[in-house]
Amino acid sequence: MRVRDDRSAQGRGGSGSPRAQVHGTAGSQGRTCAAAAGGVTGEPTPIASRETHCHLVAGLRNARWDPPQWTSPKQQNGPTRGSATLLGYTAKAGSDTAALAQPPPPPPPRAPTSPGSVKVGAVPNRRLGSVRGVPVSSPPGRRARLSYPGTGRSSSEAREELRRRLMGLIEGNRVMIFSKSYCPHSARIKDLFSSLGVECNILELDQVDDGANVQEVLSEITNQRTVPNIFVNKVHMGGCDRTFQAHQSGLLQKLLQEDSAYEYDLIVIGGGSGGLACAQEAAILGKKVMVLDFVVPTPQGTSWGLGGTCVNVGCVPKKLMHQAALLGQALKDSRKFGWEYSHQVKHNWETMIEAIQNHIGSLNWGYRLSLREKAVTYVNSYGEFVEHHKIKATNRKGQETYYTAGKFVLATGQRPRYLGIPGDKEYCITSDDLFSLPYCPGKTLVVGASYVALECGGFLAGIGLDVTIMVRSVLLRGFDQEMAEKVASYMEQHGVKFLRKFVPVMVQQLEKGSPGKLKVVAKSTEGPETIEEIYNTVLLAIGRASCTRRIGLEKIGVKVNEKSGKIPVNDAEQTNVPYVYAVGDILEGKLELTPIAIQAGKLLARRLFAGSLEKCDYVNVPTTVFAPLEYGCCGLSEEKAIEVHKKENLEVYHTFFWPLEWTVAGRDNNTCYAKIICNKFDNDRVIGFHVLGPNAGEITQGFAAAMKCGLTKQQLDDTIGIHPTCGEVFTTLEITKSSGLDITQKGC
Amino acid sequence: MHQAALLGGMVRDAPHYGWALQPVPHNWTTMAEAVQNHVKSLNWGHRVQLQDRKVMYFNIKASFVDAHTICGVSKGGKETLLSAEHIVIATGGRPRYPTHIEGALEYGITSDDLFWLKESPGKTLVVGASYVALECAGFLTGLGLDTTVMIRSIPLRGFDQQMSSLVTEYMASQGTRFLRGCTPSRVRRLPDGQLQVTWEDLSSGKEDMGTFNTVLWAIGRIPETRSLNLEKAGVHTSPTSQKILVDAQETTSVPHIYAIGDVAEGRPELTPTAIMAGKLLAQRLCGQSSDVMDYDNVPTTVFTPLEYGCVGLSEEEAVARHGEEHVEVYHAYYKPLEFTVAERDASQCYIKMVCLQKPPQLVLGLHFLGPNAGEVTQGFALGIKCGASYAQVMRTVGIHPTCAEEVTKLRISKRSGLDPTVTGC
C-alpha cells in the first residue's frame, strides 16, 4: 500500500493526495482478474482472484478495520439467490448444480468471525465456470462484512476508508453488483448476468452490518441511491433498467469484452484545453491515449493548429489584443507622466497580428511536443463514432482510419454561430477569423452582446477603429446587470457606439477588398424601423454552438440536448453512455471557461485511471471580462443572489474607486466600481464579488480563493489593504446599497 | 513615479503590439508637476475632510508640557497651549541621514526631497537597501536615468531573501547598477557641480570613487519623537530605535497617551496598518468596540520595477518557526502572457507559497513577483486570513489568462527538486 501511495503521488506531481492511490493498482489487478475470468475454465484457484482477494484483506487491515470475513464454502449460505450475503457470489442460474458440485454450505453466520478466521488461501474455486455463455456450476465465493470499526476513528476517516474499499471492489471486479437480497430488481439483474454466463461479484447491502453506509457512499460515488447498482469493467452502468437497456443496445456485451478488445484505453475527441488536459493526465497515469483534433475551416477559410479555442481563437489572442489596446491608453497617459513625443501614434494591425500569431504558433508547437513527450498519440483528423467503442478518423485528404478505445472523452468545444440571414456566411467574420485577419478590419460592426462582442469591440476601438456594437436585448446575459451596464457605459464614453434593440437582416457586399465595403440592413426589435449603414467589416459574436451534431453520437446513443446541442452529464462528467465522458464548453449547465475545462479534464482522468474521487467543483468560479475596463467577478450576480436568497436576506456593499494611476493621468473618477453581496443570515458571508477596474482579473483571483475558504464581510474588514492598489478597496467597504448613501470618491 | 516608469516600459512594448512609435525621452518636470498637483489635491482633500467632520486642525509643531498638555509653535513662532483627555501620537518617521559621512547632509537628498524635485535628478547614486531605496532606484532607471544602488549588506532585510535577490536581479537586468558590500565615506562637490562620492569596498577594503548628479540617502527612517518632549509626559521610548513603546491596545507607558503608525515600536511601517490601527483605536476610545489591531498576516507590496507582493511568513521565518521538515514550499517560474509578444524577459517572474507540510497544508505565506503584484496579493491575503489550505487554493479555478491564476496552479514543491518552470497554458 505504501509503495502504491508513493507511485500515485508522483503521478500527481507530488501533491500526494490520499485519494490517488490504491485504485490504480486495484484496477490493474482487476484487469488480470477479469482476463483470467474470461479465459480460464475450471482453474481451481486462479491467482488473479486470490490477488484481488488479498488486496481487499490488506486494505482492510491497513485501515485497522475488522478484517473481512472470508468464509469457506462450508460456512456459506446455500447458493439460492435470495439469501446470498456474498461478496464474490458467482451469479449462476444453475445454482442448484453448484450445490451439486460443492458441499451445501451451512446457513450464514450472523455473528462476525474473528480476524483470525481469515483464510486467504482457502478461497474456493469461485472462478469455476466463468467462461462466457457456458453455464457451469459455480459455488458462492466469498463474503465480506464491511463495517465501521469501533471507537477511536473519526467518521470521516472511516468514510474515506469505506469509499476506498468500495472503489477497490468496483475496480477489482469485472462485474460488481451492489444489491439487496430481497430486491426483485436485483434478482432480475443477477438473472441477466447468469443468463449471459457472466460471473459477478455481489454485495448484499441488507446483509452486511454497514449496508446503510455503503449505500450512502455509493450514492456519493454514482449519484444513485438505489439498488441494484451495477458496475461493469469499472464503468458505472446504473440500475436495473439502464443495465437492461445496455444489454439491448449491445453496450453491455461490449463492456464485458472490454479489456483486450481495444487499441486505446482512452480516445479524446478534441484537442482543446479540456481534452489535452485529460489526455495528458491519463498518459501520465500510464494509459494508452489518443487525441483527435481537427479544425473545420470557417466559411472564410480560416483554420489553426492544436490547442483549441483558448489558445488559437480565444483567451490568448484576445488578451494580447486587449493588451495592445491598453498600451494605446498607456501611450495617452504616458504624456501626462512626462514621456515626450509630439506625433500622433498610429497602430499597425499587421505588426500586431504577426506578433500574436507567432506566439500562438509557438504554443501549438509546445502542445504537440508535450503530447509526444507523454506518448499520447495525436491524430489531426476528424473523429466520428461509427459504433460502440469505435471511431472513424478522417484526415484532410479524406483518408479514413478506425480506432477503438475502452473509454472516450468528448471535448469538441464550440464554434461561433451565424445569424442565418442573407450574406452572413459569405461576408461576415467571427472571432474565429478576427485574430488572424491579415488586414486591418477598418470600420467594424460587432453584432452581439456576449462578452466576446464587448471584448472584441473594446479592443478594436482601443487600437483606434470606428466600432459599433449592435445589441438585440441584454448585455452580458447571465452576468450582474448593473456591472454589465457599467462595462458598456465606459465603452460608450470611450468611443464605442451602441445600437440597442436592433438585429441585422441582411449583409450585402458593395466592394471587394481588404477590407471591402459591406452594407448592413438592420431592423428594430420593437417596431418596423430599419436602418442601413456601411462598414468595412461585420463581426458576428452572437453566441457559440456546440460541436456535437456531426460526431456520430446518435450511433452510440449519447444524449444531446436537442435545443442547445449540449451534452448532459452527471457530476462526474459521465454521459448517459457509461464509457463516454465529456468536458469543457459542450457540457450542459456548466461554465464555458478554459480553466474549468482543464480542471475537469485532469480530475476526470484521475478518476478514470487513478481511482481518485475528486470531482470538479463548479461553485464560485471566478471569471473576468477583458473589456476596455475589465470586469472581474466570482459567485452570484446581484439578480441571482436575490432570486436564491431573497433581497431582505442580503446586504450589498459597494463603492466607486479611483485608481491612483488614473489620477495623474486625468482619467475618469467615479467609474471604477466595487461591489460585494453578503448573506446576512450566514455570518455576512460573501456570495458575490464584482469589480470593475484595471487589472480586474488579477484582483479577482485571490478573492476567489478566499471565497473558497468561506470569506465573510468581517474578514474583509479585518484585513489590511495593500496601499496603493485597487484591490484594497474591498477591505474598506462601508456603504451599503440599501442605505442609499453617496459612493462617489473624494480623498485617499 | 513607479507608474511613470511602468508607462515607459509600456511605451517600449507598444511597437511590438503594432503601435508605430520611436523611442521617446522622458521629461521629469512634466511628471513631477503632475504628481505634485495630485499630492496637493490630496492635502487639500484631507483638510476639507477634517473640516467636514469638525476636527480642529492646527498647523503647529507640538511638544508635551505635561501628560495632558501640548504646546504648539506656529511657523511665525506663536505658541498655543492645548489640553486633552486622550492624546494620540502619530508623528511618523522621516528619512535618516548618515551622521559620520562628510558631505552627506550638505549634498545628499532623501525621498522627502526626491518627489518634489523640479528638475531631473540626473545620474543618481541611491544609498541603502530598504524598499525605499529599491523602489526609487527602480523608477529612476525606468525613467531612463543612470542609477546606481549602493548596498552595505543584504537587500530588503526582513523580506524573503530568495524573493529579494530576484527583485534585485531583475533590476540589474533592467540597467540598475548595484555596488554590493560598499559603504560611502564622503561626498564632495566638484567645481562643475557634480558630486564626487568615495566609498569603501568592505570585502577588499579598497576605496573607490564615482561622480553623480544626485546622491539619495535611503538608509532607513527615524521616528519623529525627539522634539516631542516625551519625558515631560512620561512616555517611554525604545533606547535603540527611539520609537514609542506600546502595548496591543496602542497604549504607551502613560495610560491615556497612545501611539500609532510608524512612530510606534514593533509596528509595520505601512499606511493601511496605520489607518486601521487609528480607526480601531478611535472606536475603542469612544467605547464602540473592543477590537484590537491584528498585526499578523499584513500583506504588502514593494513597487520595484517587477513588483513584489507578499503576505504571511517568509520562507526563512516559516522554517525558523516550524522547522524545515514541517514546511513545504510550492513554487513556479511563470511567464506573463503580455511578456511574450513584447519579448520581455520573464526570468524573475516567480511565485512561492509557503505551507505547513502536514495536511491540510495550511498556507503560511505567499510571495509573488511579477506585474500587478499588489492587486494579485490582496485577495490571497484574504484567503490566508480565512485560513486557506494548499488544497483550497488548488481547488480555486484560475482566471485565464492572468498572472494570478499561476498561484492556483502551484504543483511543484521545492522539496521534490523538479523544475518549477511553467510551460504551456
UniProtKB/TrEMBL annotation, chain A:
GO terms for cellular component: cytosol; mitochondrion; nucleus. InterPro entries: FAD/NAD-bd_sf, FAD/NAD-binding_dom, FAD/NAD-linked_Rdtase_dimer_sf, Glutaredoxin, Glutaredoxin_euk/vir, GSHR/TRXR-like, Pyr_nucl-diS_OxRdtase_dimer, Pyr_OxRdtase_I_AS. It is found in: Cytoplasm; Microsome; Nucleus. Its EC number is 1.8.1.9. GO terms for molecular function: flavin adenine dinucleotide binding; glutathione-disulfide reductase (NADPH) activity; thioredoxin-disulfide reductase (NADPH) activity. Its cofactor is FAD. Residues 264-601 form the FAD/NAD(P)-binding domain. It is an enzyme of class 1 (oxidoreductase). It comes from the Eukaryota. Residues 621-732 form the Pyridine nucleotide-disulphide oxidoreductase dimerisation domain. Keywords: Cytoplasm, Developmental protein, Differentiation, Disulfide bond, Electron transport, Endoplasmic reticulum, FAD, Flavoprotein, Methylation, Microsome, NADP, Nucleus, Oxidoreductase, Phosphoprotein, Redox-active center, Selenocysteine, Spermatogenesis, Transport. Residues 175-236 form the Glutaredoxin domain. Residues 69-83 have a biased composition (Polar residues). Residues 102-112 have a biased composition (Pro residues). Homodimer. Displays thioredoxin reductase, glutaredoxin and glutathione reductase activities. Catalyzes disulfide bond isomerization. Promotes disulfide bond formation between GPX4 and various sperm proteins and may play a role in sperm maturation by promoting formation of sperm structural components. Belongs to the class-I pyridine nucleotide-disulfide oxidoreductase family. This is Thioredoxin reductase 3.
Automatic annotation (TrEMBL), chain B:
One of its GO terms (biological process) is cell redox homeostasis. It comes from the Eukaryota. Its cofactor is FAD. GO terms for cellular component: cytosol; mitochondrion. One of its GO terms (molecular function) is thioredoxin-disulfide reductase (NADPH) activity. Gene3D superfamilies: 3.30.390.30, FAD/NAD(P)-binding domain. Keywords: Disulfide bond, FAD, Flavoprotein, NADP, Oxidoreductase, Redox-active center, Selenocysteine. Coiled coil: none annotated. Residues 298-409 form the Pyridine nucleotide-disulphide oxidoreductase dimerisation domain. Its EC number is 1.8.1.9. InterPro entries: FAD/NAD-bd_sf, FAD/NAD-binding_dom, FAD/NAD-linked_Rdtase_dimer_sf, GSHR/TRXR-like, Pyr_nucl-diS_OxRdtase_dimer, Thioredoxin/glutathione_Rdtase. Residues 13-278 form the FAD/NAD(P)-binding domain. PANTHER family: GLUTATHIONE REDUCTASE (PTHR42737), THIOREDOXIN-DISULFIDE REDUCTASE (PTHR42737:SF7). Belongs to the class-I pyridine nucleotide-disulfide oxidoreductase family. This is thioredoxin-disulfide reductase (NADPH). The lineage of its organism: Eukaryota, Metazoa, Chordata, Craniata, Vertebrata. The gene is LOC111142575.
